Amino acid sequence: MRHWTLLGEAPIPGTERSLLLFRGKDDFSIKIAGGHELMNTRKHGSEDALGSLPCQRLNQPKTARVLIGGLGMGFTLAAVLQAVGPQAEVTVAELIPEVVEWNRGPLGDCSGRPLDDPRTRVHVGDVAKLLRRQRACFDVIALDVDNGPEGLTKSSNNWLYSAPGIAAAQDALRPGGIVAYWSAGPDQGFHDRLRQCGFLVEETTVHAHGNKGPRHTIWLASVM
Ligand SMILES: C[S@@+](CC[C@H](N)C(=O)[O-])C[C@H]1O[C@@H](n2cnc3c(N)ncnc32)[C@H](O)[C@@H]1O
After folding, report:
1. d(CA 108, CA 117)
2. How far is the CA of 38 from the centre of ligand 1 (A)?
């Protein structure tokens, strides 16, 4: 049996549950207390793709304005920073303050310490609240706050995948912008909803790790 050392615990705001950070022999794991693993530092192929795929499609990646929700283990943030230029600005919204601390501390080296990059801005709070306030601000919005359209961490995250949430993301995009959504699996209803909201939708699947393991779904939604 694998040995895990508990490094930290963080309550999930608005719920009775908490996140736990564990160190293994050569990896870290974030689990929902009493539930399953949310993230592991050995498996981040689809998190990387969530950041790189939309940025690679931009006409002006050098000066891109990007919003990421949430931080997790920092892999999507690191992939975005690699794909955009020196004048880019990348805001990462993270609900749980301890997750930001863990990334500034023991987790940081796993993703190359993207929080230390001068292009990174950290917003501690709900990405949904941030989105509601923004108009025509971002070239890319990359959302990975939960298991996908069927929330796991926080049921209020479902709003982000509803028609009003999709419309808010659309309003927050600059012309030519792209919203990228991560999900543990396919969801035809969500795909259809993106199209009904006026998005042109590209759906792709990416392995969790290299060319092995489960495939995760990424939707790239752009305005027609
Ligand atoms: C699956 S992880 C993200 C993984 C990330 N893509 C990476 O590269 O490691 C989900 C993260 O979103 C955060 N989160 C959950 N709901 C949120 C919300 N409404 N706003 C901002 N962050 C949220 C969680 O605390 C967690 O850190």
Report:
1. 12
2. 10
